[in-house]
C-alpha cells in the first residue's frame, strides 16, 4: 500500500481541498500519513497570497525529500496555477497541477512513477470552470465546507481570480447533502468556506441561487450545532442575511468582513466595491440586532499611494468602529496585478510600522470585546488541544476561552460563564455545566 502525505499552505479553502483530495487517495487504496512520516508521495497544496510563496514551496519540497529522498512530489494549488514553470524547476518536483487539474491528480499522474522530466498540467485559468466539492473532516473539531470558488471581482492587489478563476458555486442542494453527511460524524461546527462566498449561487456562468437561500436552507440541517460564515464582502452582506442570522438557530453571531482600507481614496484605487460609509452601516446593522456579535476585519497597510494621512484615516476609522479584532496584511507586490504598477510605493519600513500599529489596535479591540462579554453565559466548543494542563475553545461569538484540561470536554458544547481575561489574553471560564447545551 503506497503512503501519501500532504502539506497545506494558505487558507481554509486550501485546507478543505487538501482534506478532500486526501480522502480520494484513501478511496483508491493509498494510506494517508502525517507529513513528518516517510511517504511514497508528497502532495503540497500551495497559496499565492502567502508571503514568499516560492521560498515556502521550496522549503516544503526540501523537507519532504529529507524524510523520503526517493518520494514522488506533486505541487498543486494557487501558486502552482500562477507559476507552473518556475515550480517545475524546483529540484525534486515531479509534477505540477493547476486549478483545473488538481482534483484529477490521481488519474493524471498514473501510478506516481517518476519521469525524466517533471510533468506539468496547468491549463489557462478560464478552463477552471467546474465546481469541485470539498470539506475537511476529522482533522479538526470544526469542518471547513467549501461552498463557492473563484471570484469575478478585480481588486487591484489580488491574484486570486488569476489563480482560481471565475466565481462558481455548489448548489444549495449539494451543500445540504454535504452538511448532512458531515452531521453523520461527530463534527459540531461547520465553517462555510469559499473565495467570495457572498457571491454564492453562480453555476455554469448563470446565477441560479443566492447566499441567503443557502443560509436559510442550512439552518434547518439537523445534527450540526453551529454554522459559521468564514468571510463575506461588506457589499454582499445584505440586511436579509444579518437579520436571518440574528434569529437563526444555528448560524453563530460572528462575521468576518474585509475592509482593506478606511480611506475612500485607497478603496477606490483597490477597486473595492464600497466606500467606508457602507462599512459603518453594516457594522451598525449587525450591532443593532446582535450587540454581542463578533466582527473581524481584514485590512491591508502600505498599498501604493497610501500616505501617512490615508493610513491615519484608516487607523482612526477602525479605532472608532465597534469591531472585535483585525487581521492585518502588509501589502506586498504580486506579479500580474494592477497595483504593482501604481505610483506611490510605500517603503517596507513604513509598511511594517503601520502593520505594527494596527496589530496593537487589534489587541486593544479584542480585549475590549472580551471585557464587554465578561459575566455573560456563552456556549463553548472545546477543542482537542492541551497546553500546560489547559484546553481551549471558542464561544459562538468567537471568544477564545480556556479551562482545565478534561478529555471529556473535547468536541463538546458546554455552557460556561466568562469570568476573567488571563495574562495570555484568553478568557477563563467557570461553572462548566455537565449538561449538553444546544446553542
Ligand atoms: S473580492 Fe477582491 S480580494 Fe477578494 S478574492 Fe475577489 S478579487 Fe481578491
TrEMBL record:
InterPro entries: Elp3/MiaA/NifB-like_rSAM, Methylthiotransferase, Methylthiotransferase_CS, Methylthiotransferase_N, Methylthiotransferase_N_sf, MiaB-like_bact, rSAM, rSAM_horseshoe. It comes from the Bacteria. Its cofactor is [4Fe-4S] cluster. Gene3D superfamilies: Methylthiotransferase, N-terminal domain, tm_1862 like domain. Residues 2-114 form the MTTase N-terminal domain. Keywords: 4Fe-4S, Iron, Iron-sulfur, Metal-binding, S-adenosyl-L-methionine, Transferase. The keyword Flavoprotein does not apply. The keyword S-adenosyl-L-methionine applies. Coiled coil: none annotated. Residues 137-368 form the Radical SAM core domain. This is tRNA (N(6)-L-threonylcarbamoyladenosine(37)-C(2))-methylthiotransferase MtaB. It comes from Splendidivirga corallicola. The gene is mtaB.
Amino acid at each position: 500500500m503506497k503512503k501519501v502525505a500532504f502539506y497545506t499552505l494558505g487558507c481554509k479553502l486550501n485546507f478543505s481541498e487538501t482534506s478532500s483530495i486526501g480522502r480520494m487517495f484513501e478511496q483508491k487504496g493509498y494510506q494517508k500519513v502525517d507529513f513528518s512520516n516517510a511517504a511514497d508521495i508528497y502532495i503540497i497544496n500551495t497559496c499565492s497570497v502567502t508571503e514568499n510563496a516560492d521560498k515556502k514551496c521550496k522549503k516544503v519540497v526540501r523537507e519532504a525529500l529529507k524524510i523520503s529522498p526517493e518520494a514522488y512530489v506533486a505541487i498543486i494549488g494557487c501558486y502552482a496555477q500562477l507559476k507552473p514553470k518556475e515550480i517545475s524547476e524546483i529540484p525534486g518536483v515531479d509534477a505540477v497541477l493547476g486549478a483545473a487539474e488538481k482534483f484529477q491528480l490521481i488519474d493524471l499522474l498514473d501510478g506516481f512513477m517518476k519521469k525524466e522530466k517533471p510533468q506539468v498540467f496547468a491549463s489557462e485559468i478560464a478552463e477552471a470552470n467546474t465546481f469541485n466539492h470539498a470539506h475537511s473532516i476529522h482533522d479538526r473539531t470544526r469542518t471547513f465546507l467549501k461552498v463557492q470558488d473563484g471570484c469575478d471581482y478585480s481588486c487591484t492587489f489580488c491574484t486570486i481570480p488569476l489563480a482560481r478563476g471565475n466565481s462558481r458555486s455548489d448548489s444549495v442542494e449539494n451543500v445540504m447533502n454535504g452538511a448532512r453527511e458531515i452531521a453523520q460524524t461527530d463534527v459540531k461546527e461547520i465553517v462555510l468556506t469559499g473565495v467570495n462566498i457572498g457571491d454564492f449561487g453562480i453555476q455554469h456562468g448563470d446565477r441560479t441561487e443566492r447566499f441567503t437561500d443557502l443560509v436559510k436552507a442550512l439552518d434547518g440541517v439537523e445534527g450540526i450545532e453551529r454554522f459559521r460564515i468564514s468571510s463575506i464582502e461588506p457589499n454582499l452582506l445584505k440586511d436579509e442575511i444579518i437579520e436571518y442570522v440574528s434569529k437563526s438557530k444555528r448560524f453563530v453571531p460572528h462575521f468576518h468582513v474585509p475592509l482593506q482600507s478606511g480611506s475612500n481614496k485607497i478603496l477606490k484605487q483597490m477597486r473595492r466595491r464600497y466606500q467606508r460609509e457602507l462599512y459603518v452601516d453594516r457594522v451598525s446593522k449587525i450591532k443593532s440586532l446582535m450587540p454581542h456579535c463578533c466582527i473581524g476585519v481584514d485590512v491591508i497597510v502600505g498599498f501604493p499611494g497610501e500616505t501617512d494621512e490615508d493610513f491615519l484615516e484608516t487607523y482612526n476609522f477602525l479605532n472608532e468602529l465597534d469591531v472585535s479584532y483585525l487581521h492585518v496584511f502588509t501589502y506586498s507586490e504580486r506579479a500580474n496585478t494592477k497595483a504593482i504598477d501604481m505610483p506611490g510605493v510605500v517603503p517596507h519600513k513604513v509598511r511594517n510600522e503601520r502593520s505594527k500599529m494596527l496589530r496593537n489596535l487589534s489587541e486593544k479591540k479584542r480585549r475590549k470585546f472580551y471585557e464587554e462579554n465578561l459575566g455573560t453565559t456563552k456556549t463553548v466548543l472545546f477543542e482537542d488541544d492541551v497546553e500546560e494542563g489547559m484546553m481551549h475553545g471558542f464561544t459562538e461569538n468567537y471568544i477564545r476561552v480556556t479551562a482545565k484540561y478534561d478529555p471529556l470536554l473535547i468536541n463538546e458544547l458546554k455552557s460556561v460563564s466568562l469570568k476573567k481575561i488571563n495574562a495570555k489574553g484568553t478568557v477563563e471560564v467557570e461553572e462548566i455545566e455537565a449538561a449538553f447545551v444546544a446553542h
